[in-house]
Amino acid sequence: MDSEELFARRAASFGSAAADYTRHRPGYPVEAIEWAVGDRDRVLDLAAGTGKLTESLLELGLEVTAVEPDPAMRAEFTRLFPDVPALDGTAEEIPLRDASVEAVVIGQAYHWFDPARALPEIVRVLRPGGVLAALWNHDDLSVPWVAGLEKLTTTTVGELPRQPRVVPEHPQLKPPEQVQVHHSQRRTVESMVATLRTQSHISQAPEEEREAVLNQVRSYLQTHSETSEGEFERPLITTVIRAFRR
């Protein structure tokens, strides 16, 4: 399987575990979202998945429209947020009219887009003065036990062929700005294993390899004082990149 085929398979892998994604993926800290959207009210959650980002947007009282291409993820989204419009569409073909939203937010998904096609579409639906904001949750590797865990989760699926946590510049967008917000997720050994199981480099690995990796992870967590008993805090960083439309 070549890298582009593997990339496409990984990008399409999340719907089969939509309920687990809801249950085990972390949300986003309010500070990160407030910095991302500012005082803008009408927001598009692009590649919304099961609504991890929408949940926090609604808590801030924002008007949200979701776009999500995977029918299983979209069905889970609608189950959780029945009053939020959830449209079938992609970043490369957004089913909204020109200049119809004040902010486009993307949680844990921009690295799956084709930037050459997606960025012009995002700019098209943004009003002048609107903002594009991409958010990524990732582990805080400055914490020794987290860095050790990271080394155990490598699989033959390998790294993404496109660099994550980067938003290219566009002539109709001002230069990107970036912040990082530290937060955490409460986990147990088993719920941490379940979280990792939702990550595409693990879920798309051959079954024997996948289970071997997860068993190593389980043993590692069970033998570290920070994680071995009951619940523990999983240290996370949310990286936010925003760019305002000229």
Provide keyphrases for this structure.
246 residues; alpha/beta; seven-stranded mixed sheet; globular
Explain this structure.
With 246 residues, the chain is an alpha/beta fold. The chain is built from ten helices and seven strands. It has helices at 3-11, 18-24, 30-37, 52-59, 71-80, 115-125, 144-152, 189-197, 200-203, 207-222; strands at residues 42-46, 63-67, 86-87, 101-107, 126-139, 177-187, 232-244. A seven-stranded mixed beta sheet has the order 3-2-1-4-5-7-6. Helix 5 (71-80) links the parallel strand 2 and strand 3 (86-87). Helix 8 (189-197) packs antiparallel against helix 10. It is globular.
Short description:
The chain has 246 residues and is of the alpha/beta class. Helices cover 37% and strands 23% of the residues.
SSE sequence, one letter per element? HHHEHEHEEHEHEHHHE
C-alpha termini separation: 42 Å
Q: Would you count the extended β strands for me?
A: 7
Oligomeric form: single chain
* Rg calculated over all Cα atoms: 18 Å
Strand content: 15-25%
Average pLDDT figure: 90
